[in-house]
Amino acid sequence: MGILEGIIPVVIIVFVLVVLNAVFLTIIYFTQRKVNEISGWPSATATVMASQVEWRSDSEGSTQYPAVLYSYTVMGQSYSSTRIAPGMEVGGMGAQKVVARYPVNAQVPVYYNPQNPSDAVLEKKSGSQVLLWTLLVIFDCALCGAIPSILWANSS
């Protein structure tokens, strides 16, 4: 086997690493930007109208997601939303804990965009950032670990 044939899998892995890192870091960057923006938003009091765990299915199975409907008023105008936090929705084992924080009829703070009060969240932090960083580290470790294995296998 020529040296070029042994390098091609490494080049592919490095390319995948670069692309995955670019995608994950872009998502993390924009999520953090939104978190920073939200930190300056004013708050109002919201009433939780519905709060439950929903099951959503895809090709990999079913996952629990928190579903919280709340209503709030800004300058005499009523709004309602289901958005809990900035960033991507995060499902799984923590869904029940999120729902427990927002029981029906509870009065909770809501943070709204002063330029567009219909844009609101219940939490200023993003749960998806921790998940994205974790996935990024796992992908990087797995792919970086594969490079020496490929080089070793090709040298034998």
Shape: elongated
Rg is: 22 Å
**Biggest sheet: strands side by side, in what order?**
3-2-1-4-5
Q: What is the domain tally?
A: 2
Q: How many H/I helices?
A: 3
**What is the string of helix and strand elements?**
HEEEHEEH
Helix content: 40-55%
Question: Major sheet: size, sense and barrel closure?
Answer: 5 strands, antiparallel
> Helix/strand/pairing class, anyone?
alpha+beta
Low-pLDDT sequence parts: none
How much of the sequence lies in strands comes to: 25-35%
Number of strands: 5
Oligomer: single chain
Structural summary, described in words:
There is one protein chain. The termini are close together. With 156 residues, the protein is of the alpha+beta class. The protein contains 3 helices and 5 strands. The chain folds into 2 domains: 1-39 and 125-156; 41-123, no CATH class. Helix content is 46%, strand content 31%.
